[in-house]
Amino acid sequence: MIKAENLTMHYGPVKALDNVSFEVKEGEIVGLLGPNGAGKSTTMKILTTYLYPTSGTAKVGGIDVLQDPLAVRKIIGYLPEVLPLYMDMEVRGYLDFVARARGLSGARLRERTDLVLDECGLRPMYRKVIRELSKGYRQRTALAQALIHDPNIIILDEPTSGLDPHQIVEIRQLIRRLASGRTVILSTHILQEVEATADRIVIINHGKIVGDGTIDELRERAKDQERARVAVAGERGEIERLLSGLSGVRKAEFLGEREGFVSFMLHGRLGSELWREVGQLARTKGWELRELGEKPLTLEETFLSLTERKEAPAASAREGVA
Ligand code: ADP
Ligand code: MG
Questions:
Q1: Is the model's pTM score more than 0.90?
Q2: Which of 7, 80, 101, 137 is most buried, most CB within 10 Å of its CB?
Q3: Whether the Cβ atoms of residue 293 and residue 283 lie closer than 8 Å to each other
């Protein structure tokens, strides 16, 4: 339904996108996840034909954004990052206006306006001037605008930004409801956001795609970033050397010494093979082990490990160590 093909975008000297390719299949909800400045909005502006890429192209609903931008605009609903609202209009009047601009009229216009008012929970607000609405209701109004013509493809740029936790939960539920039978791409810099709403994540960083898959697949990819701590009674130097030498251990990070035990955080791909090796080492060396705890990567750390060249800061790895 959506296919970005080698999108590159320069804003003058700034390279905002660098050869970005990904796909969104029919009926999928895909989260475009990345830190601020990663290129999410730029990608969405290209998909919605508000910007032309420097090179590469995209197809939306099978239509090339460069060849027929108007046809693309007709079949998509777009919630831009900056809400496209007229502050002096009433909610109903605004939706009416957008509907007319979308070519709706008569009974169909009334039917669609009524439906999106209900769908977006705007019924109690429909006679209010947009200026008087809370941020949450403004967001709903902008979402209603994106849905008025009943598009099959919905593109949402940071749909929950600036909302309070209650509003975030409501908008997420709303998005999930809207997504049934539709194809949705939403951007966010918040990991929980995609975990809560998306089937699949495309991670973008510095204009490049650095991850693409389900949350479980991305966790799997970040596996060589696993960590576990061990504490061994003995002399630091020898223990450090032997632990570092284990297969799968990229680094044995010294954490501290207490009551004769030295603690290390092992970084690497830490499967059952590793634990066998540690056990063997402990037997042959007569080590007394105290801790042998795995610290599974949190989703945050998975994300960090995929978007940073350096590993996750050691401070977080030290939490809870004896
Ligand atoms: P995101 O939405 O992920 O925060 P953007 O797509 O807005 O990222 O921006 C990507 C990069 O392009 C950033 O470095 C940003 O400063 C730059 N950028 C975005 N829009 C413009 C513009 N109109 N002119 C110049 N640089 C821009
Ligand atoms: Mg943005």
A1: no
A2: 7
A3: no
